[in-house]
Amino acid sequence: MIHKVENFTAKDGFGTRAVHAGQPTDPLTGSLIPPLYLTSTFALDAEDIDTLAQGRNLPPEQYMYGRTSNPTQHAFEVKMAALENCEAALSVASGMSAISLALLATLSSGDHLIVWRCIYGHAFEFIEGYLPKMGVEVAWVDELTPAALSAAARPNTKAIYLETISNPCMQIPDLQAVSDWAKPRGITTIIDNTLASPALCQPRQFGMDIIVHSATKYIGGHGDALGGVLLGDHQFVQSVRNGWYKYLGPVPSPFSCWLFNRGLKSLYARIARHCESANAIANFLHNHPAVARVNYPGLADSPDYAACQRYLSSPPAILSFSLKGGAFAANQVMKNIRLATVALSLGDADTLISHPASMSHRGVPADIRLQSGVDDGLLRLSVGLEDAADLIGDLTTVLDEVNLKDKHSA
Ligand SMILES: *Cc1c(COP(=O)(O)O)cnc(C)c1O
Fold first, then answer.
1. Alpha-carbon Rg of the chain, whole angstroms?
2. pTM of the model
3. For 168-199, how does the pLDDT look when each residue is reduced to its tens digit (9 = 90+)?
4. Centroid of ligand 1 to alpha carbon of 317 (angstroms)
5. From CA 164, how far away is CA 192, in angstroms rounded?
6. How many CB atoms are closer than 10 A to CB 137?
7. For ligand 1, atom 8, which residue shows the shortest CA distance?
8. How confident is residue 2, by pLDDT bands cut at 50, 70 and 90?
9. Would you say the CB of residue 226 lies under 6 angstroms from ligand 1?
10. CA of 97 relative to ligand 1 center, distance in Å
11. 218-230 pLDDT, tens per residue?
């Protein structure tokens, strides 16, 4: 049997690393794909028994119990670390557990956190509702410019929390400016890279310290598993694994990790297709009379066009657009569209559409919601892997109908 050891290098391209990283040949069977290890614990041999009897620790890479590590999870972690250019990764049960663990492990009572206002709703709720109870002070900023960061900073500022692409308005912060500001001050940067996926942006390249993902989205890519991953240097990731992770226990199912590994192999090819279609749809929407505004940083007139060119390898696979007919028109589109499923989540093979004002952002007070661009006519579209021509044909049918109604009521 041929035993293949890890055969990728950090210099290999993204697609190559996505296929090969985390995949040494299984020494027992030669299995090409890392096997799915559905086990809660691992047998100890005579040497291990003696090591423990002598009061010594087993080597850190040895599997002992499923709450801290499992070989199928490990394969996923190696692949993710290779793709994000990070030293280490920790797989977790959901994107939210990656976010809360990163924050809990970084912050202590008495620390101050600066947070971008445009973040994922449940991250917003956790930071606003729970961190202050634990003695962490929070400052919300609308912009991530050095001037805004300096104005928000205090002597006890410990970390900044942001996202690569905001949801649902698709703003892209100046990542390098944020890390250039934070690094000399010893402030840790934590970024949620879910909407970009590692295929479009690797925030480590721009100086970010800790990266979190919902693997539920593009990494899995098929809408069939929940999970997350947290990345950083060895020391940080080990401290999480041996700390909050061990005690809170947000362990992903090995089966989910097996699906994420499988998803990552084709991420490169999937994302290219997702993005190509999203770009075509954004341009179509931009020219449709029923549409008031399209939020897509790939459009030349987008305020985020320059940041998109600089930080993403392609404009993203997701967009939002606001209808002139407001809430009524948005409601009609959701009820009549054929190929987009009305659902939360994103990054699936299936195109998904949602109405942020009544769904993801329903808890946000109306004035704040409108100020941040989430008006009643806004729809978010996660562009799937259907043929772009079919998606555009479907949108044409529903939007032409909406446009006729707009004209009638005008
Ligand atoms: C979905 C999502 C999350 C949460 O991920 P779960 O896997 O649902 O816990 C966090 N951040 C962003 C940007 C997301 O889209």
1. 22
2. 0.96
3. 999 999 999 999 999 999 999 999 999 999 99
4. 16
5. 6
6. 17
7. 95
8. very low
9. yes
10. 9
11. 999 999 999 999 9
